[in-house]
Design brief:
The chain is an alpha+beta fold. The protein has two domains: 2-80, OB fold (Dihydrolipoamide Acetyltransferase, E2P), CATH 2.40.50.140; 83-254, de novo design (two linked rop proteins) (Up-down Bundle), CATH 1.20.1440.120. The protein is built from seven helices and eight strands. The strands form two sheets. Strands 1-2-3-5-4 form a five-stranded mixed barrel. The longest helix has 19 residues, at 218-236. The relative contact order is 0.13.
């Protein structure tokens, strides 16, 4: 048995029996890890409020080889991201990001780049910067690239021509082609030029800045959401009809006129 200390974001926390919690973390050093925190339930529990989802913590685990569930011995709160919970849209899309991470990342597969991406998106939500849905697109696009399934949409994959007029996106190839160049075989979806442009902007290193500046139409948003989900599903063979994402998208469908305005700085609506 040995002790391991990690910098981690809490993806999920669930009650276990009468006094404990099972907590899923994504850490910079070890990727996805799960731990049991004994005596953690209740306001006077051993870990108080340090094991809630969407918080950054420093955890110490008691490690036993060949066990998927380790024991949490210490947990120190580094950043609660408390203001995110005060915004319904930001909270919903942040939860969707955490759920996606828990679904697609496997244990012991660490990615410092993905961890930094998680922190960057959470920080943007915390500061009220950027459109919540576009920030979620930024996360999905960059996550796909880190998993080896990058999207290539800057030009037609066949003739290197412009895609301003739209075309077809091939899921097996992760490429967009104009109508003249697209091969008949393989799973594909039609894509608007505006959707391709949005993905290009959000997929750059300054994707968070693009989520601040851009104001795509609802049609482009819906098309982008479907394309990104299907692309990740195709390559990971995983159902990504996530509960948190369904709830977040239902808020968008409900319309800004019927809900309080979103707290988004720098984005025209």
């Amino acid at each position: 048995m040995s002790l391991l200390t990690l910098d981690a974001v809490i993806l999920r926390s669930q009650y276990y029996r009468e006094t404990s919690r099972i907590v899923t973390f994504y850490s910079r050093e070890k990727g996805l890890v799960k731990g049991i925190a004994k005596g953690a339930r209740g306001k006077k529990g051993r870990f108080s409020s340090t094991l809630e989802p969407m918080q950054r913590v420093r955890i110490t685990l008691s490690i036993r080889e060949n066990r998927d569930l380790q024991t949490v011995t210490e947990a120190d709160l580094l950043h609660p991201y408390a203001s995110i919970r005060e915004d319904l849209f930001r909270s919903a899309y942040s939860q969707a990001m955490l759920e996606l991470t828990g679904r697609l990342m496997w244990q012991e597969h660490s990615s410092g780049e993905l961890y930094d991406l998680l922190l960057n998106i959470l920080q943007a939500h915390e500061e009220g910067v950027g459109d919540p849905q576009l920030l979620n697109f930024v996360f999905q696009i960059h996550m796909a690239g880190l998993l080896g399934y990058a999207l290539h949409t800057s030009e037609c994959a066949g003739c290197a021509g412009s895609l301003d007029g739209g075309g077809k996106f091939s899921f097996p190839r992760g490429e967009a082609c104009c109508g003249l160049c697209y091969p008949v075989e393989g799973a594909a979806v039609s894509v608007q030029g505006a959707t391709v442009e949005l993905i290009n902007h959000l997929g750059r290193a300054e994707g968070v800045a693009a989520a601040v500046a851009l104001t795509p139409s609802q049609a482009v948003r819906r098309e982008t959401a479907v394309l990104l989900r299907r692309h990740l599903e195709y390559h990971t063979e995983t159902d990504l009809n996530l509960r948190a994402l369904r709830f977040a998208e239902s808020l968008d469908d409900y319309n800004d006129e019927k809900l309080p305005s979103r707290s988004v700085k720098g984005v025209g609506k």
